[in-house]
Amino acid sequence: MERRTWRIGTSMACLLAGSLLAIGTMPGKASASDGYDLWLAPAHEGAAVPDVQVIGDSQTLQLAATELRRNLTGAKLPVVLTKALNPALARLRLPTAELGTEGYLVRTVMIAGRSSLLITGNTDTGVLYGAFAAIRAQKTGADLTKLDLISAPRIKLRVLNHWDNLDGSVERGYAGQSLWDWWTLPDFKDPRYTDYARANASLGINAIVLNNVNASPLSLSADYIAKTGALAEVFRPWGIKVYLSVRFSAPIELGGLKTADPLDPEVQAWWKAKADEIYRTIPDFGGFLVKANSEGQPGPRDYQRSHADGANMLAAAVAPHNGIVMWRAFVYAETDPEDRAKQAWSEFKPLDGKFADNVLVQVKNGAIDFQPREPFHPLFGAMPKTPMMLELQITKEYLGFSTHLAYLGPLYTEVLEADTRAKGRGSTVAKVIDGSLEGSALTGIAGVANVGRDRDWSGSTFNQANWYAFARLAWDPSLSATDIGREWARQTFGNDPHVVDTVVSMMMESREAVVDYTGPLGLAHLMATGHHYGPGPWVNDLARPEWNPTYYHKADRGGIGFDRTRTGSNAVAQYAPQVARKLADPHTTPESELLWFHHLPWDWKMKSGQTLWHDLVAHYDRGVSTVARMQQNWDSIKDKVDAERWTKTASYLAIQHREARWWRDASLAYWMSVNGLPLPAGSPAPQHDLAWYKAQSFPLAPGQ
Ligand code: GCU
């Protein structure tokens, strides 16, 4: 499909500054903001309201028109919103077949003898997305009269997973309580639900899983179905369907059955009746998300059935209603002595081809758990007969919660661009999940949401960029992290080129900084227990071996790293042969993943010419100094950003700097206690001794 994506470079931004003034976008200080408006701040007061004509009477088209009236500035030509089947458009011979069910076309054309900005799509939702695309284009500097946008999403299901509990808490949530006030639903529909739907629709998110994957059976009770129905009603005109996480043993807890065995006819009948009940209230209900036999959750393995048996039973219940099942592959068992990184592949690969047509297998980006860096999950490309969804974490469980600035665009594109080599060169993860590699019709991507009731939704201004980046990549996984960052910065802080450049440069180095100060060179899972916040590489006393950081780094006097080659767990063999060969040799393994795959001596010679130990220390030091540079950069635009957002970000950067140093010092103190080596000259000694770092405790850290 032809796809033209409008882009703008830095130099063009300067040229545009004049025209931006003309259309009323202030290139000076961004106006006061508490962050509630996200990237959707309305046009400034007094801007001319455009002449928007709507042909059609759906609620969605009306919403699109309202958005344009509120946000477009200085439109000198009328804006016409209509679905593509409008006969008046026939003579224009527009390439509407390319748009599918959700794509849009925005172009200046002659309508009824007048030059008009046409926004069209094959569906109302497509038109709505087109309206938001036009607003985005204008806010990022485009000339409305020259707009020519054609775009259709490459992935069908663009999903946010809420890990929200029914009591209002959010697992791994760092932006306040859950948005959903289950207690007052369904009667009271908080206007914030609409604002949330709108923000998601502006980016093309079309699916929301409302509740935690560690699900309570209660969410399937009649009362809660009604509450879910009320949210579905709010979301519907914005093109968003609701989904629920379900607890596999709900037939026992809620239905009073003796078993949840997926092959038991009574269990099957219970789920079918439950699905019918849900669809009576919510005719466009999306389906189920399931975490089964993982971290203590019940599942089909409890009855010696496979994950496919479990998924297919649920799939059969929702199939008559066109529902789907997203079945997670995040499984590992304490009874399994195998390397945790291998377990999902071992369990799921043999099931390829055994899942029903309306099942997607949802796989985290890496084989462990949303670490600041992980190699791509070996299941991508390994199950050609199964639609695979990618699951990313937007909330920053392992990347500093809400306070650390870590733009995840580069993390997301790193996995999307990773080449599985499943069908030769170019078999990227993006192509696995957009269905183009194997021709799968059902495609999806999910992000674990980072929103809550904080006024700024995501706990910080920069965290909003991660929600934004996830959604933009869900629409088009070939977008670049830098372009997305730039687009977001312009809409968030205005088009002043110095502000945009500064913000984007901070964003683009931020994730690598977190990798550097928490776990460089492929180290992972080194955090303290429970809250996952600070460092704990020394932890080795937890009940299950694979919960202990020492399991992951295997540091001893002789060296550090997890041997996943043939002499170790041989996890490399789960990748396609070309990838496996590269990863089996430390000389050809990317250094960023070195210690994930290899146990190497401390004096291993790195590409820099330094020893592994010196290189490791240099990474920790670089992590801390990058944060210091981010602080300086932020200081340099103090008079160009509103005081409220500037001050909060500055305070958070100060926290991040202090904690980057903490991570570095604690980690180095521990590594030195293991290897007995001194720090290289010029690298400062840790501020405290190891005992001090070990004694830190945070029982009240959020998100647990
Ligand atoms: C991580 C996270 C849990 C979560 C789990 C999951 O382990 O710490 O809180 O439940 O991932 O993805 O299921």
What does this structure look like?
The structure is a single chain. Helix content is 36%, strand content 10%. The protein contains 20 helices and 15 strands. It binds alpha-D-glucopyranuronic acid.
Which helices and strands, and how do they pair?
Elements: H1 10-23, E1 52-55, H2 59-71, E2 79-83, E3 104-111, E4 114-121, H3 124-139, E5 148-151, E6 157-161, H4 191-201, E7 207-209, H5 222-235, E8 241-246, H6 250-253, H7 265-281, E9 287-290, H8 307-318, E10 324-328, H9 340-348, E11 359-364, E12 388-393, H10 409-417, H11 429-433, E13 444-448, H12 461-475, H13 481-493, H14 497-518, H15 549-553, E14 559-560, H16 577-584, H17 594-597, E15 600-601, H18 612-636, H19 643-675, H20 690-695
The structure holds alpha-D-glucopyranuronic acid.
Please provide a brief summary of the model.
The protein has 704 residues and is α/β, with parallel strands linked by helices. The protein is built from 20 helices and 15 strands. Helix 12 packs across helix 13 and helix 13 crosses helix 14.
Helix content: 25-40%
* Helical/strand content category: alpha/beta
Low-confidence runs (pLDDT<50, min 5 residues)? 1-28
Give the overall form. globular
Radius of gyration, in Å, reads 26 Å
| Total count of helical runs of at least 4 residues | 20
- SS elements, strand count: 15
* Distinct small-molecule ligands in the complex: alpha-D-glucopyranuronic acid
Largest sheet: 8 strands, parallel, barrel
| Strand order within the widest beta sheet | 6-7-8-9-10-11-12-13
Write a concise keyword list for the protein shown above:
binds alpha-D-glucopyranuronic acid; 704 residues; globular; 8-stranded parallel beta barrel; disordered N terminus; 5-stranded mixed beta sheet; 36% helix; alpha/beta
